[in-house]
Amino acid sequence: VGSEMCIRDRLILVDIQNDFITGELPVPDGRAIVDPVNHLIPQFDHVIATQDWHPNNHFSFFTLHEGKKAFESIPQGDFLQTLWPPHCVQESKGAEFFPELHTQFINTIFRKGTDPNIDSYSAFFDNQKLKSTGLDGYLKGLSIEELHFAGLAADYCVYYSMVDALDLGYRVFLHEHCTRAISKEHFQQQKEELIKHPNFTLLP
Asked: Beta-strand (E) ranges in the chain?
C-alpha cells in the first residue's frame, strides 16, 4: 500500500476477540487469520479495531430465553434474531482481543452491541439501524474513502460491516485470507452478491 493511498484508507479489524477464536463462540479455523492479519497491519498507517462488547443480560444470549437453544432464531422487530451463546461480555476475558494479535498497532477501537436490547453485527450501526457506533462520522471527518476489512466472522460482523460501508459510499476491500466464516456456504452466497457491487473488491 503506497503512502499516498494510506492517507485515504483504513484497515478495519473486526472482532478478533478470544470468544470468537478459542472461547464461547469459536469461528471454525478462526485462529488461522491471526498471523496473516499481523502481516497485513504494517501496510497501513492507521488501524481501527471493533469489539463486540455485550452486557451480561444481552437479549441475543439464548440463556435468557427459556426453552431456546443456541443458534435458534426469534423475531426482533422486523429482523430475525439469531440466539447466541453468551459471548464477549464486557470486561470479560472472552471480550479481550486475542493475545497473539499485534494490538500495539491499533490506533482506534469502536465497541458495539452495548445495548442489552439490540444486537449489532456491523461496525457502523446496530441491526435495527437505530443507533450509530460513530465510526462513519469519524471516518468522514478524516476524509477516508477506502476501507480494508479483515476479522471475524466473515458471514456476520464482517459482512454486515462491509454492506453498511458500501451503502455509506466507501470503496471496500476484503482481504479474504484474513477472515473466516461460521458457514462457508452462507458466506459464498454473500460474496457472490458483494462482487456485483462496483465499489467492492475481493482480495485473495
From this structure: 9-14, 47-52, 73-76, 79-82, 108-112, 146-152, 171-180, 200-203
Segment holding 164, helix H or strand E: helix 159-167
* Calpha distance 38→138 (Å, rounded): 24
C-alpha distance from residue 204 to each of 39, 173, 179, 183, 201 (Å): 14, 10, 10, 18, 10
Q: Do residues 15 and 154 touch, judged by C-beta distance below 8 A? A: no
Cβ–Cβ under 8 Å, residues 165 and 174: no
Q: Active-site residues: which are they?
A: 15, 112, 157
Number of other CB atoms surrounding residue 177 within 10 Å: 15
pLDDT score for 65 = 96
Per-residue pLDDT tens over the stretch 134-173: 999 999 999 999 999 999 999 999 999 999 999 999 999 9
Percent of the chain with pLDDT over 90: 91
pLDDT digits (tens, 9 = 90+) for 3-29: 444 556 999 999 999 999 999 999 999
Q: Are 106 and 49 in contact, with CB atoms under 8 Å apart?
A: yes
Residues in the chain: 204
